[in-house]
Amino acid sequence: METSPTPELEEIQHFLVSRPAALAARYEFLTFRTPASGRKWLAGLIDKVGTAKAVHPTRLDSRWVTIAFTSNGLRALGVDEDALATFPEEFRQGMAARADILGATGTNHPDNWRGGMGSDDLHAVIILFACDDKERERCRVEHEKYLTQHEGVEVLSTLDLGAIPSKRSGAHEHFGYRDRLSVPAIEGMGDEPTPGSGKRIKAGEFFLGYPDEEGEGPALPRPEVLSNNGSYIAYMRLEEHVGAFRDFLKQHGKTKDEQELVAAKLMGRWRSGAPLVLSPDKDDPELGGDMQRNNDFNYKEMDPHGYGCPLGAHIRRMNPRDTAVNMERRRMIRRGGTYGPALPEDAPEDGVERGIAAFIGCASLVRQFEFAMNVWMNDKTFHELGNEHDPICGTQDGSFDFTIPKRPVRKKIKGLPQFSTLRGGAYFFLPAIKGLRYLSELETS
Ligand code: HEM
Q1: Residue from 101, 322, 393, 421 to probe ligand 1 pocket by mutation (most atoms less than 8 Å from CB)
Q2: pLDDT level of residue 445 (50, 70, 90 thresholds)
Q3: Which of 166, 194, 216, 354 has its CA 20 to 30 A from that of 120?
Q4: Atom of ligand 1 nearest to the CA of 331
Q5: Burial code of 121-143, b = ≥16 C-beta within 10 A, e = fewer?
Q6: Mean pLDDT value across the chain
Q7: Which tens digit of pLDDT belongs to each residue from 6-31?
Q8: How many angstroms separate the CA atoms of 306 and 434, rounded?
Q9: What is the value of pTM for the model shown?
Q10: In 3-state terms, what secondary structure has residue 54?
C-alpha cells in the first residue's frame, strides 16, 4: 500500500517529471553581477517555468522553461551563509572541486572545461526545451531582449541542442545508439514502470521533502520554502569522438555485422536499442523500439557471465539491476540531448565538437550521481573486471581493457581509446515554484 504523500505537481518544476515532445533545446549559463539584478531577472520569468502539473508529454505546447542555480548562484541572489551551510557539502563545493571523485582527470579536467563551467561566476542555468529549432530561435531572441532590461545579468555561455537526423525512429546520440529507453518510474507521478524496470521508486529519491527508500528522508536544507520539492541536477557536457569510435569498430570488426556486434557489446544494447541479454546474436530493431519489452530483462538469472551483455558494458555498469544491492537508492533521472552537427556516415573525423549535454537528477549527488561515476563508471575492479572503466564514458587513457566474455575463449581488447571527453559540468539546485519565488523576493541588507 502506498502511504507516501502525493508529490505536489503544481510546485515541482517539470524537468525531471515529464519529458515533453522537444526536438530542440538551448542552455544559457548565467552570472549575476548584483543580487538585485538576478532577483529581478528571476521574478519576471517564474510564470514561464513549466510545472510537473502543466507540462505533460501528450499535451502540446511549444516551449518549456526550467531554471536552476549553483551554490554560488544562491549566494549571489542573497541566500545567507547560515542557510547555505545547511545544503549538502558536495553541492556547495560544486562539480569542479570534486573532479577527482568523478574521474575528471587528464583532458577531462576542469582546467580544460569550456564556456565558464567550473568558474565561481557560474550562477544559474536557464534550460529551454522547444518543439523545434524555429521555436528555440524565437525564445533565444526573446530572452536576449529580456536580458537587455536586466543589466547585471550576463551570459557566460550558451549551448544549442538538436535532434540528430536518423532514418531510424526514436532519439539517437552521435555514436548512433537509440537513447531514452530506461527511466525510473516514481511513486505518485502516475506512470507505470515498464516491464523489467523495477518497482516504482519513492519520490524522496528525486525530490526533497518526501519519504525516500530508507525512511522519512533527510532534513530539508533551510529555509524549507527554498528547498522543499527541489532536486539536485548534475550537468555534464560530454564530447563524443565519433571518428575514433567508428575507427575502433572497424579495427575490431571485419564486416559490418561484426562492427555492429562490437558496438552492441560496448553499450549492452544494439544501436537499435535491443538489449543484448534478450537478443545476444543479432539485432532486433522491433524489440529495440518496444517499450514494453526493451527493459524486460535482468542480469543475474538471464546472463550471469556476460555472454550476452558484457559485465563492463555501459548499461550494465550504470544500472546493474539484480546484480547490485540497494539499487532503489541509486537510480537517476537523465535529461538532455545532443549538440553539434552529426558526422555523416563514412566521413572522416572533422574536429568539430559534438556530444551529449545532459543533466542527471537526484535527491543526493553523493549517493546517486557521484556513486555512479566513481564506482560504476570508473572503478577498475567493478564486477571483478580488474582493469576496466566504462567503455563509453569512463575515464580512458589507453591503459584500460574491455572484456567480451565468450565461450570457449573470451576476447579482451587492450588499450581502449577515449570515446568521450568531459567539456564542462556543474552542480545545480532545481527549486520548486515557491523556492523560485522566495529567491526572487529575497532582501539583502
Ligand atoms: C558519451 C556519454 C554517454 C553516452 C553516449 C550514453 C549513451 C547511453 C545509451 C545509448 C543508453 C541506452 C538507452 C537507455 O537505456 O535509455 C544509456 C543508458 C544509461 N546511461 Fe548513458 N550515456 C553516456 C553517459 C552517461 C553518464 C555520464 C551517465 C551517468 C552518470 C549515464 C547513465 C546512464 C544510465 C543510468 C542509463 C540507463 C541504464 C539502464 O537503466 O539500463 N550515461 N546511455
Answers
A1: 393
A2: low
A3: 354
A4: 35
A5: bbbbbbbbbbbbeebbeebbeeb
A6: 95
A7: 999 999 999 999 888 888 999 999 99
A8: 48
A9: 0.97
A10: coil
Distance CA 112, CA 93 (A): 18
* Vertex 306 angle, CA 273 and 316, to 5°: 50
Residue 229 has pLDDT above 90, yes or no: yes
Ligand 1 centroid–CA 3 distance in Å is: 32
Please tell me whether residue 431 adopts helix, strand or coil conformation. Answer: coil
Q: What is the mean pLDDT of residues 36-56?
A: 94
Of ligand 1's atoms, which has the minimum distance to the CA of residue 179?
13
Of the candidate ranges 50-64, 286-300, 349-363, 396-410, the one whose mean pLDDT is the lowest: 50-64
Q: How far is CA 421 from CA 160, 251, 401, in A?
A: 18, 21, 18
Provide the residue ranges of all domains of the chain, joining segments of one domain with +: 14-166+177-237+428-440, 240-324+339-349+358-425
Residue nearest to atom 27 of ligand 1 (CA): 393
pLDDT, tens only, 258-284: 999 999 999 999 999 999 999 999 999
Helix-, strand-, coil-residue percentages of the chain, each rounded to 5: 30, 20, 50
For residue 355, give the C-alpha cell.
556530444
Q: For residue 184, what are the contacts with CB-CB under 8 A and spacing of at least 6? A: 193, 197, 198, 201, 205, 331, 332, 333
Instruction: Give the residues surrounding ligand 1 with Cβ less than 6 Å away.
Output: 173, 175, 177, 179-182, 236, 238, 240, 267, 269, 314-315, 318-319, 332, 334, 356, 360, 369, 372-373, 392-393, 420
Q: pLDDT digits over 327-342, tens only?
A: 999 999 999 999 999 9
